[in-house]
Specification:
Protein name: BRCT domain-containing protein
Oligomer: single chain
Helix content: 25-40%
CATH superfamily of one domain: BRCT domain
Number of strands: 24
Strand content: 5-15%
Radius of gyration: 36 Å
Distance between the termini: 82 Å
Pfam families: BRCT, PTCB-BRCT, RTT107_BRCT_5
CATH architecture of one domain: 3-Layer(aba) Sandwich
Length: 868
């Protein structure tokens, strides 16, 4: 087919750097260069990473990987990095293709997927196409030779038959595969979703899930290797240069390795064509252990390659460059834990081999504790799938059950991620997530912001080599200028008065000695990039900084006054007038009574209210006088009453009544009658004042706060039915102090009427412990509940229940099948088994006194006869 002149100018505006690698050998690179040149482009081939000048001058970089030195520079300068497929697709379309759909960035995890859809609903089709495109893949409406995946519900569709007849290398998958990939934000194996016999449709829920070897974690499962790796002498591209050729590498003293190992490493580096230096300014690469110290920060700010010993050993093993940021444990670790991770106890389940070692080391690097076994004092369980005894036990004990993505995301962001995020609780039915462990990358922007920000106390640009305080190295000499004694008292971190973002600070008028800071916070002058020329200049600046601290209250008052209606000019008070209202309240009203303002009213409002209200409010909300829990209030029950409920709650708040949902916060409980709702029973344990909902009606009707004593809840019929006195129960609750069931361990069958969560909350509100019974008893830490530390809780009744273990059940046959197992396990731990109706718990919680379990106990004779 003949090509037009316009086609031959397709790459006319393109200067393309082609980077060779194992996946893109020199021969293939030469073929690509010939095609680009034929169509008007200007190609260049690089067997190693292009240098900075070549990178900046090119318009595109063609590479099958992001593991080359100039990748970070390309990202910063917005030069697209594309796979060779970009060239082929551009030729096929006769126009430059979108670089995003051909990016080798593994974060676009569907970047090598070309999908077409079979006989699936239009809504599912649109969702799949959108998800694939967003994650770097491509869509084809027809079945072409470039298609990699056909999404279908059956292998009998027209497109599926075409794939089978022509024996095309296309995977026919269910839509569930894309759904699980997008939920996890990671690409998983297609095998369980592949037609005509997908495993997810034929496997049972308890069938074992196969785990595959995670080859991507080879050499990347620890941040602190103890021995030299087995070296691969072959260069990456045959006769091409090795990975260390021409590099100048600094081995930081904080590595803490012995002299013999250090000599071996240096010998390998020199043999590979590298030089070893002790000066960070001369080095291209820095190998260190921790994310701190002058050497680390200087190298990072100068955009040098910074990695740890595991990364260096990985390069020695494979003789191919890999970015330290591509693996979480290839980068130096922090001496301090992730905020929120200290004190966490994390266990692992269903991870094997390198994936398990990797996660154990990652937990330690994050600052948490990794436990070999799962106990009730654990806080988290990280599991590769949801089918294991550990998972069942963790859910019974109320532990957080998540996949490894939660840990990796927390480490990469250096911030504790919420376990409630859907991707951390998603476990595809037939996939072991250990197969995709280790794919998370570090974000250079996060590292810069937290560990080596240019606004830090150390210099951000090049400077003469000086001795590192944390690292004893003779190669780094102190600066030539004389040491300054007065610097010894200046702290490294800045504690100056913060300046409100986006707001103008008040300038003290001390003969203009104090100047506006150039940055958003003050930095001690001895930490600035430029060294002061004289000692007197330094002293004056230190005096100015000290002066600023004197003005801190003035600045704070200024910021407060700026938020007042009218700002500082209209109605504001100067610092010199402090106390003018409180100490001499008659001064201003006499001078200008029209502009008199109530200080107390303004201080009672939030800053937001003061800044946004158009005029002074005539009426402000009163302080909260009671926290009211309401249950069984029929005016709020039912669909369509949500707006009325919200309006009523606002009205009550304006009267000083805060409606709460947490029983621990309530001081008053309102109900139409005595109820057995979760709210009512839980609230009783905290001994609130109990009133009728007539109190709520009358407060709303009269729009005023009435005396709750005038609206007691009286329900003699319910008291007779449930055999207790509400007044006495309130007195006992105050005496019990939520310790009625301390020492009691109550189990509950899984599908009990009313729900496990309701009974769990009741037991815990009264100091006990409630667990689901799934064929095991967890009595490992019972001893601490049996200690005689209840001297402050003199409750009615005996404490025999503390030597018993209870199971809340019903007389249904499906529940009765669990009873023999429960009795056996209780006997094994020398506890008396008591299988009881839920009325036993409810009666005790409502009366606030212990009751014998005999009259509530269930037996096999009652099965099918007892009503729940």
């Amino acid at each position: 087919m003949a090509h037009s002149d316009e086609d031959h100018r397709l790459f006319e505006q393109c200067r393309v750097c082609i980077v060779c690698s194992n996946d893109l050998p020199l021969e293939t690179a030469e073929q690509l260069a010939a095609v680009i040149e034929e169509y008007g482009g200007e190609p260049s081939i690089h067997q190693t990473s292009p240098d900075n000048n070549d990178t900046i001058e090119c318009t595109h970089i063609v590479s099958n990987t992001i593991n080359f030195l100039a990748y970070d520079l390309a990202c910063k300068t917005f030069i697209p990095v594309v796979k060779p497929s970009w060239v082929h697709v551009s030729l096929a379309k006769r126009k430059i293709a979108n670089p995003r759909q051909h990016s080798p960035d593994p974060r676009l995890f569907l970047n090598d997927v070309v999908v077409t859809c079979g006989d699936i609903p239009e809504g599912d089709k649109d969702a799949i196409i959108g998800g694939v495109l967003a994650k770097g893949g491509l869509y084809s409406s027809r079945m072409t030779g470039t298609v990699t995946h056909l999404v279908d519900l059956t292998a009998d569709s027209d497109k599926a038959r075409l794939v089978q007849v022509k024996k095309m290398r296309v995977k026919i998958v269910l839509p569930h595969w894309f759904d699980d990939c997008l939920k996890l934000g990671q690409r998983i194996n297609e095998r369980p979703y592949t037609l005509p016999d997908p495993e997810i449709l034929r496997a049972g829920p308890d069938d074992p899930i196969k785990s595959n070897e995670n080859k991507g974690l080879a050499g990347a499962s620890t941040a602190d290797p103890s021995a030299m790796p087995t070296l691969n002498g072959a260069s990456r591209n045959g006769d091409g240069p090795g990975v260390f050729e021409g590099k100048c590498i600094m081995l930081s003293p904080d590595l803490g390795i012995g002299s013999r190992l250090l000599e071996s490493i240096e010998a390998v580096l020199k043999q590979g064509g590298a030089t070893v230096t002790g000066n960070v300014n001369d080095a291209n690469w820095l190998v260190c252990r921790f994310r701190d110290g002058f050497v680390y920060r200087t190298a990072s700010r100068l955009d040098k390659v910074v990695g740890n010993l595991a990364w260096l050993f990985h390069l020695m093993t494979f003789n191919e460059y890999t970015r330290p940021l591509s693996r979480l444990l290839f980068y130096p670790v922090s001496r301090t834990p992730i905020p929120g991770f200290q004190g966490l106890k994390i266990s692992l389940s269903n991870y094997v081999g390198e994936a398990r070692i990797y996660l154990e080391n990652l937990i330690e690097a994050a600052g948490a504790q990794c436990t070999k076994t799962l106990k009730q004092e654990n806080t988290h369980l990280i599991t590769a799938h949801g089918n294991s005894e550990k998972c069942s036990a963790a859910r019974e004990w109320g532990l957080q059950v998540v996949n490894h993505l939660w840990l990796e995301d927390s480490y990469a962001a250096w911030k504790l991620q919420p376990v409630s995020a859907p991707r951390y609780n998603h476990f595809p039915s037939r996939t072991n997530l250990g197969d995709i462990a280790g794919q998370k990358m570090l974000d250079p922007q996060v590292l810069e912001n937290i560990f080596y920000s240019s606004e830090d106390t150390e210099p951000s640009g090049p400077r003469p080599a000086m001795q590192d305080k944390d690292q004893n190295t003779t190669a780094m000499k102190p600066p030539a200028d004389k040491p300054r004694k007065e610097e010894s008292n200046v702290p490294e971190t800045t504690h100056g008065t913060p300046q409100a973002k986006g707001k103008t600070s008040r300038q003290p008028s001390d003969n203009n000695k104090l100047q506006t800071p150039a940055r958003s916070r003050l930095i001690p002058d001895d930490k600035e990039n430029e060294t002061p020329s004289t000692g007197s200049s330094r002293k004056s600046k230190e005096a100015a900084t000290a002066k600023l601290h004197e003005y801190a209250p003035d600045l704070a008052l200024y910021e407060k006054e700026r938020k007042r209606v009218g700002g500082v000019i209209y109605g504001g008070r100067r610092k010199s007038d402090e106390g003018r209202v409180s100490e001499n309240p008659k001064e201003n009203p006499k001078e200008n009574p029209k502009k008199r303002r109530s200080v107390e009213a303004d201080e009672g409002k939030s800053d937001n209210e003061q800044a946004t209200e158009p005029k002074r409010q005539k009426k402000s909300r009163p302080p909260i006088s009671m926290h009211l829990m309401i249950t069984g209030y029929q005016k709020w029950v039912g669909k369509g009453n949500e707006k009325k409920e919200d309006a009523d709650k606002r009205t009550l708040r304006d009267l000083g009544i805060m409606v709460v949902q947490d029983a621990r916060r309530c001081t008053h409980l309102a109900a139409p009658t005595i109820l057995r709702t979760t709210k009512f029973v839980n609230a009783l344990a905290y001994g609130p004042m109990i009133v009728s909902t007539d109190f709520v009606d009358q407060c709303l009707k009269k729009d005023e706060l009435l005396d709750p004593v005038d609206f007691p809840l009286v329900d003699k019929a319910a008291e007779t039915k449930f055999q207790f006195s509400l007044a006495k129960a309130s007195i006992r609750a105050k005496k019990n102090k939520n310790k009625l069931l301390r020492g009691f361990r109550v189990y509950c069958v899984e599908d009990i009427r009313g729900g496990f969560d309701a009974f769990k909350s009741i037991v815990e509100a009264n100091g006990g412990e409630c667990l689901l019974f799934r064929g095991r008893l967890a009595l490992a830490n019972n001893s601490r509940r049996e200690e005689s530390d209840d001297e402050d809780s003199e409750m009615d009744g005996d404490d025999s229940g503390r030597n018993e273990v209870f199971l809340l059940s019903s007389a249904e046959s499906k529940h009765a099948r669990l009873w023999p197992r429960f009795r056996q396990l209780a006997g094994d731990v020398k506890r008396a088994p008591r299988i009881v109706r839920v009325d036993w718990l409810l009666d005790m919680a409502m009366s606030q006194e212990l009751r014998a379990a005999d009259e509530y106990e269930l037996s096999e004779e009652m099965v099918g006869k007892e009503e729940e």
